[in-house]
Design goal:
2 domains; four-stranded antiparallel sheet; 7 strands
Length: about 170
């Protein structure tokens, strides 16, 4: 059994009679999307979508979207995200075994050397500005810190998401 809680912020998965609750932000900050489908747009490929840090393929916004459907398909978890602005849907596909292991062996407990307090403060201020959905913060981080590679920016963003609200990060 898989369901989305009210507001689309948490996914609940029943495994061996035990309900595991996974915060959507943990899902995206902890795992790489294995595959993607964009059912509504034939001219926009999954490679375009994955390369562009999850910019909406319908209206090119980084405002993010809501989880509107979750399904278990074979060995995968398919998460449908619907854009806040244009309502385009994208199906992000994760390996189910990876989803079930979120939080068990997190290698993000210790702050990686490349991450500075400046990076974290920038992301805090960006969030406080309410101008974007923080799932789309990687491009903003790369603009503010042009020396970062895309992978480094993703790592910083992931660490920020996992430690948000912690005093000792």
């Amino acid at each position: 059994m898989i369901k989305i809680t009210e507001g689309g912020n948490t996914i609940e998965i029943m495994v061996s009679g035990v309900v595991k609750r996974i915060d959507v932000s943990d899902l995206y900050s902890s795992l790489e999307v294995k595959d993607a489908r964009i059912p509504e747009l034939d001219n926009y490929t999954k490679e375009d979508y994955l390369e562009n840090s999850f910019i909406c393929p319908g209206c090119y916004t980084t405002e993010g979207g809501d989880v509107t459907n979750v399904e278990e398909v074979e060995d995968s978890l398919e998460v449908t995200i619907t854009c806040h602005i244009c309502k385009t849907s994208v199906v992000d596909i994760f390996k189910l075994k990876d989803v079930l292991n979120i939080g068990r062996n997190s290698n993000m407990k210790k702050k990686p050397e490349k991450i500075t307090n400046d990076h974290l403060n920038f992301l805090d201020k960006l969030r406080e500005s309410t101008t974007i959905n923080m799932f789309g913060a990687v491009p903003y981080l790369m603009i503010e810190y042009p020396e970062l590679t895309k992978d480094e920016a993703k790592s910083i963003h992931s660490y920020w998401m996992l430690t948000f609200g912690n005093e000792n990060r």
